[in-house]
Amino acid sequence: MTTPLATLTASPTEDTQAPFMRTIKTYVLRAGRMGSGQMRAFEQYGPQFLLPYTAERLDPEAAFGRSAPLILEIGFGMGDATAKIAQVRPDDNFLCCEVHEPGVGALLKRCGEAPIPNIRIVQHDAIEVMDHMLGEGSLDGVHIFFPDPWHKSRHHKRRLIQSPFVHRLARHIQPGGYLHLATDWQPYAEQMMAVLRAEPLLRNTSAAADGFAAKPDYRPLTKFENRGLKLGHGVWDLVFKRV
User: Fold this and answer.
1) Dihedral sign computed on CA atoms, order 58, 94, 147, 17
2) What is the pLDDT of the chain when averaged over all its residues?
3) Mean pLDDT of the region 165-189
4) Of all residues in the chain, what percent carry a pLDDT higher than 90?
5) What is the β-pairing status of strands 173-183 and 139-145?
6) What pLDDT is attached to residue 27?
7) 149 and 187 Cβ atoms separated by less than 8 Å
8) pLDDT given at position 10
9) Longest C-alpha distance within the chain, in Å?
10) What are the residue numbers of the active site?
11) Which long-range contacts (CB under 8 A, 24 or more apart) does 12-16 make?
């Protein structure tokens, strides 16, 4: 999965209508080599499933060839879970942001071979995609699964899920839409919960005492998650609704 960063120069009190100025991206590029199948996927399936990053508003109906609820996924890694979710939710459109080229190639290959017509990929920083291609209130949902937990205390400032970012996400979700996060690192899960509970535009959908949600049926278990569960590690889902 893409490794997100979260050191943002904007603060919660700044005018969020202004461009989101910052010097640190929401990801770290990881070295990776593409296989021949992934490289061919760019040529064969890129024209159908890849959307160029632009500074203009996206027309989802034109991009997907239909009108349907729009779900943004940030950092899909190699795209296994993304492909499965899109297949079990054929009535939704999935706009997926990832900068890791082998992962983009792998998902393109899945989309073309399956096929999976309700996915479009933007190989670009998700924050810039939101700022320039998506209007506020334009999303029906957002998925962020297993972002980098940045385990060391001195690196916690790099975590993606922090108040300025979550507030910006919430503004892009229409009322009644949702934000779904998942992590397998308990300290990060607890930070996520604190951040989301503090965001006035979001309301927790879980009635559990600890606030965490049962894993929604649409989210498949990843191979890393399965491995962690076998080792006794926990997984925490957070599902909040935009008010």
Assistant:
1) positive
2) 88
3) 97
4) 75
5) parallel
6) 45
7) yes
8) 38
9) 50
10) 148
11) 12/163, 12/164, 12/167, 16/167, 16/168, 16/171
